[in-house]
Design a protein that fits this description.
By secondary structure, the protein is mainly α. It has 16 helices and no strands. α6 packs across α10 and α11 packs antiparallel against α12.
C-alpha cells in the first residue's frame, strides 16, 4: 500500500503541471487581460459591473493621466492609443508580462510548489490571504452539504432498495426526482420569499455567514447564530444534491441483492440486517465511493456560486468568478492550482477508502 500511495503522489506532480500548462496556454489566447483592464479603467471604457480595481489600479490611473496625449504609442493593446509607451511597459512589468511566456510559466510553477501565489493584481492583498479569507464560507457550505446529502441519501437509498416497489419507494422517488429537476438557485429564491421576509415569514437572515454582532456573542449563541444563517443556503443546495446518490445507492443494493452470495448468506440462516449491512453494504457502496471525489470538489467550489451570490456569501466560488471576469490571473491560477490539488488528493483518499470498505481490493498488485 505504501508503494502505491507513493506512486500516486509522484504522479500528481506531472498531472498538476499539465493542468496548469493547458490553462496557461488558453489564457494566452483569451481576449483581454489585466493590462487592457487597467487601460480601460484609465480611458473610462470599462463597463464591467464586477470591476473592483483598487490600490495598484489607482496608481496606474494616476500615471496614465500623466502619460496621455503623446500620440506615439504603437502598443497592440486595445484602447492604448494615446497613452505613453513607457507607461504601457510599466504596466507589463507590474504584471510580469515583460517576460516570455515560458519563463513566466516556469516561474509560476516554481512559486506554486512552495505555495507562493504572489499578490492579487487588483486587490491590495496577497492571493493566499485572499483565499484564506474566503475559505470559511466555502468550507461551511461544502461541508454541511456533503454531510447532509450523504447522511440522507445513503440511508434513504438503502430503505428504498429494501422496500422496492412499495408506496414508500414510489413517493420518495417522486420527491427525489422533483428536487433534482429544480435548480438549487430557484429553491434559494423560493426560500427567501417564504422565510426571509420576502412575502410571508421573516424567520431566517437574508445574507451573510454570521450576524454583525457575532464577535460580542457568547460561544453558544455564536454557534446558534452561525447555524441560523446556514439554514437557507444549505437547504437550497441539499434539496437537489442527494438525488443522484440516493438512486445510485438504491440501484447498487438491488444489483447486489440478486447475486448468489446473498442467497447463500440467507440460506445459512443469517439475519436480514446481517446480510444487508455485513455483506451487501460493503459491495454496494463501492460505486457510491467512486463518485465521492467529484461530489466533494463540486460541493465545495463548483455548485456554490449562485448560492453565494443570492445569499451574499463571499466565498471561493464568487471569488473565482469575479477573478475571471476582472482578469485577475494571479487569483485565477492560484484557485485552479488549489482546486486541482485537492481533487487529486481526494481521489487518492477515495481509493484508500475502497480498500477500507472492501479489504479484498489490493492496490499493491495493480499498476497505476
Amino acid at each position: 500500500m505504501g508503494a502505491y500511495v507513493l506512486r500516486r503522489i509522484l504522479l500528481m506532480i506531472p498531472t498538476l503541471i499539465g493542468i496548469m500548462a493547458v490553462s496557461f496556454v488558453i489564457i494566452q489566447f483569451a481576449p483581454g487581460g489585466p493590462v487592457e483592464r487597467v487601460i480601460a479603467q484609465i480611458t473610462g471604457t470599462d463597463t464591467s459591473a464586477t470591476a473592483r480595481i483598487s490600490g495598484g489600479g489607482g496608481d496606474f490611473a494616476g500615471s496614465g493621466v500623466q502619460g496621455q496625449g503623446t500620440g506615439g504609442s504603437t502598443s497592440t493593446y486595445r484602447g492604448a492609443q494615446g497613452l505613453d509607451p513607457e507607461f504601457i511597459k510599466q504596466l507589463e512589468q507590474q504584471f510580469g508580462f515583460d517576460k516570455p511566456p515560458l519563463e513566466r510559466f516556469l516561474k509560476m510553477i516554481g512559486d506554486y510548489a512552495t505555495f507562493n501565489f504572489g499578490d492579487s493584481y487588483f486587490r491590495d492583498i496577497s492571493v493566499l490571504e485572499l483565499i484564506l479569507e474566503k475559505l470559511p464560507v466555502s468550507i461551511s457550505i461544502g461541508l454541511w452539504m456533503m454531510v447532509l446529502s450523504y447522511g440522507i441519501s445513503i440511508p434513504l437509498g438503502v430503505a428504498k432498495a429494501v422496500r422496492d416497489g412499495s408506496r414508500f419507494d414510489i413517493w420518495t422517488s417522486a420527491v427525489v426526482i422533483i428536487g433534482y429537476a429544480i435548480p438549487s438557485f430557484l429553491f434559494a429564491v423560493l426560500l427567501i420569499v417564504l422565510f426571509a421576509g420576502g412575502s410571508f415569514w421573516n424567520i431566517f437572515p437574508l445574507r451573510g455567514l454570521v450576524s454583525d454582532d457575532f464577535a460580542t456573542l457568547p460561544w453558544h449563541q455564536q454557534i446558534l447564530d452561525y447555524l441560523w444563517h446556514m439554514v437557507l443556503p444549505i437547504t437550497a443546495m441539499t434539496l437537489g444534491a442527494f438525488a443522484t446518490t440516493t438512486l445510485l445507492t438504491k440501484n447498487s443494493f438491488l444489483e447486489e441483492v440478486r447475486k448468489q452470495y446473498v442467497m447463500t448468506a440467507r440460506m445459512k440462516g443469517l439475519t436480514e440486517n446481517r446480510v444487508l449491512y455485513g455483506h451487501i453494504f460493503r459491495n454496494a457502496m463501492l460505486i457510491v465511493i467512486a463518485g465521492f471525489p467529484g461530489a466533494f470538489i463540486g460541493a465545495f467550489f463548483g455548485g456554490s456560486l449562485l448560492i453565494e451570490t443570492i445569499f451574499s456569501l463571499d466565498g471561493l466560488g464568487l471569488l473565482g468568478f469575479e477573478s475571471v471576469i476582472n482578469r485577475d490571473y494571479a487569483v485565477v491560477f492560484a484557485t485552479l492550482y488549489i482546486f486541482s490539488l485537492m481533487g487529486l488528493v481526494v481521489g487518492l483518499i477515495s481509493d484508500l477508502t475502497y480498500m477500507w470498505v472492501d479489504p479484498r481490493i489490493d492496490f499493491e498488485s495493480r499498476e497505476v
